[in-house]
Every structure is written in structure tokens, then in C-alpha cells.
Design brief:
Mean pLDDT: 91
Strand content: 25-35%
Number of domains: 1
Helix content: 10-25%
Structural class: alpha+beta
Radius of gyration: 21 Å
Order of helices and strands: HEEEEEEEHEEEEHEHEEHEEEEEEHE
Shape: globular
Distance between the termini: 85 Å
Number of helices: 6
Number of strands: 21
């Protein structure tokens, strides 16, 4: 009898563990290259035009806490496989956009199938979550992601320049804070769903999805955020009323760190390296990827920065270029103090411009 009970208990335990794992794998989360849940990931899509060569424009590097350093993805960014495709498939393939059990919100100042406008914040990304958890994917890719009913489509225009994306898995309470941060950005939401069961908590998001501007307590806001596994990020967001370069005028001073900044540098529009305040913002001009692949910032539409001093170990990814016109636009940065992320980005800096 003892053996039978033991056998039954073992079987019951296996069933319970299987159910738990099934439920965990079903949670909305960032997904890695194998489609498994991860706390966060970063991708860096290569530009088509690199120094000395012309590429496909859809190759990318991948990073998360388990791989330890940049990995060349075996997938292409225009494939529904890989980290970005697998993450979005939770909305697309599962047809969660037809369900009332989760929230999703897609935003881009240059949306797919719609005209570009400067009336909104210069910001791009999406949210997808339920009452338990979900993800915030922020990126630099115009015309992306596609409308859910269209399935996964990567825009052909997104092949030319370098692009970055940061995905972080958050619990529900953190996602409510992120929605408040988005109010400062005034994103152009082009596809949203806030079911009635979420309306009490997400009235602000519902208004933003309708294009409403919300009253703000100030012209900028900093918010600590903690991933589902407890890793700290800090969100810096500014409204259009904070008329300054976010890197130099705020983030460098707040973090007390000189920043090396990589943003799209259109000739005649970019702001020069600036050392007028205690902490400086210096423009990166050339990137060197693993394998000695190099490209110039004029072919890079990504927006990121790292601390010049190795001991500070600050890395931020976000929305805004160091460009005069974007001093008048809403936008933000999400900053990490993870040494793995810092090392990965800091080693990419091949050449930057010091102040004159």
C-alpha cells in the first residue's frame, strides 16, 4: 500500500509540475531566439551599407542574460522566427487581438500604412499584457510592427539603416507605471485594445489610444522599473514642453555620467558633441560590431548611449536622436545598469567626437 501511495504521489507531482510549466510558458513575455520566455532581450539590426560591403539589411545581433554577449542570429529580422517574431506571435498567431483577456497597444510616429506626422512624440513600441504580466517592446523601426490581423510583416524601409529594440518582461503593476510614463511621450497609437475588465486600471491608456492628450504634472518624469525577475531599469520620459536634448540636458546630469551617444545623424540636423554642462554628451561616429564589421552613424537609425567611464556602467536605449527638431518632441530612454548590457554596447564604440 505504501508503494502504491508513493507511486500515486509521484505521478501527481509530475502532473502538477507539468501544469505549472505549461502555465508559465503560456505567460505573456519577451521570447528568446528559441521562443522561450526571457526577462529581457536586446537586438541590434545591421544597416545594409557597412564600410566596404553591402549586406542584406535584415541580419541582427541578439543579447539576453543567458547568452552573455552579442550573438549573430541565425534568423533574419524579416522572418517571423527569432526573438522579435516569437514575441509578437503571442499577439499575432495566437490571435490574442481577438480576445478580451489581454491588453495590447501599438504605437509609432511613422505607423505602417499611415502617413508620418510630427504631431506626436518621436517614439516607437508596443505593449502586450494581461492581469499577470506582459512585455514592453521599445524600438527604433518606422512602420513597425504591422497591424495584428496582417501577421508579422517587417517593412522593406527598415532594411536600410541600423535599428535597435529592447524588450523587457514586467509584472502587471510595473506595466501600469509604464502607461503613466507613455502619457509624457504622447505616442501615436495606431492599434489598441483595452478590454472592459482592465478599464478601471487603464483609463489613461484608453484615452491615449483615442489620441487624447493627458494633463501632466511636469514636463519630464523619471521612474524606476523592475523586470519580472527583479532587474532594475530606469525610464526617463520627456514631453514636448521639455525643450532640450534629453541626453545632455537631463539624462547625463541625472546619472552623473558622461555619455557616448549613438543616434541617426543627418547632416545639418544633428547636435554637436556638448561639454557645456558638468556631464557631457559626445556623438559616436562609427560602430564596430563583432567580427570587425563597421558602419557609420549616418546609416544607423538606432538610439542608444553608454557611459564613457567604464565604472559607471550605464546603458540607455530609446526614442530620440540628438537633433535640433527633436528637442521639441516627446520621447524617452530606458536605462540599465547591467554590466553585461554595458559591456556589449561599450565595445561597439569605434570612434566618437570629443568637444572642441
Amino acid at each position: 500500500m505504501f508503494r502504491m501511495d508513493t507511486h500515486f504521489n509521484v505521478l501527481a507531482l509530475i502532473v502538477i509540475m507539468f501544469l505549472c510549466c505549461t502555465l508559465c510558458s503560456a505567460d505573456i513575455a519577451c521570447r528568446n531566439e528559441a521562443g522561450e520566455s526571457v526577462d529581457w532581450f536586446v537586438i541590434y539590426k545591421l544597416p545594409r551599407y557597412k564600410i566596404g560591403e553591402v549586406g542584406s539589411g535584415v541580419d541582427y545581433l541578439y543579447l539576453d542574460s543567458s547568452v552573455g554577449s552579442w550573438q549573430w542570429s541565425k534568423y533574419m529580422i524579416n522572418s517571423s522566427q527569432g526573438a522579435v517574431g516569437s514575441t509578437l506571435s503571442q499577439l499575432y498567431k495566437a490571435q490574442a487581438y481577438k480576445s478580451n483577456s489581454s491588453v495590447y497597444a501599438l504605437y509609432n510616429d511613422a505607423p505602417p500604412e499611415l502617413n508620418y506626422t510630427q504631431d506626436y512624440g518621436h517614439t516607437k513600441g508596443m505593449l502586450h499584457f494581461d492581469h499577470s504580466q506582459g512585455f514592453w517592446l521599445s524600438h527604433s523601426i518606422p512602420h513597425f510592427p504591422s497591424f495584428p490581423e496582417r501577421g508579422y510583416i517587417y517593412p522593406s524601409s527598415g532594411k536600410v539603416n541600423g535599428q535597435t529594440a529592447l524588450c523587457v518582461t514586467y509584472q502587471y503593476k510595473e506595466l501600469l507605471l509604464i502607461v503613466k510614463q507613455l502619457a509624457y511621450l504622447y505616442p501615436r497609437f495606431y492599434n489598441c485594445s483595452v478590454p472592459a475588465m482592465f478599464s478601471a486600471d487603464l483609463s489613461q491608456l484608453a484615452q491615449l489610444c483615442k489620441g487624447s492628450k493627458l494633463p501632466l504634472a511636469s514636463n519630464k518624469k523619471m521612474e524606476p522599473l523592475f523586470s519580472a525577475h527583479g532587474e532594475k531599469f530606469v525610464s526617463f520620459v520627456k514631453s514636448a514642453h521639455f525643450v532640450d536634448d534629453i541626453y545632455m540636458g537631463w539624462v547625463a546630469q541625472a546619472l552623473k555620467a558622461d555619455l557616448l551617444v549613438e543616434t541617426w545623424q543627418r547632416q545639418g540636423h544633428d547636435l554637436p558633441s556638448n561639454c557645456s554642462l558638468p556631464k557631457h554628451a559626445l556623438n559616436i561616429k562609427r560602430i564596430r560590431l563583432p567580427g570587425s564589421v563597421r558602419f557609420r552613424s549616418r546609416y544607423d537609425h538606432s538610439k542608444w548611449c553608454v557611459s564613457r567611464a567604464y565604472e559607471d556602467q550605464v546603458t540607455c536605449l530609446g526614442d530620440l536622436n540628438r537633433e535640433r527638431a527633436q528637442m521639441w518632441r516627446g520621447g524617452g530612454l530606458t536605462c540599465s545598469f547591467n554590466p553585461l548590457i554595458y559591456k556589449a554596447f561599450r565595445q561597439l564604440v569605434d570612434w566618437y567626437i570629443s568637444c572642441k
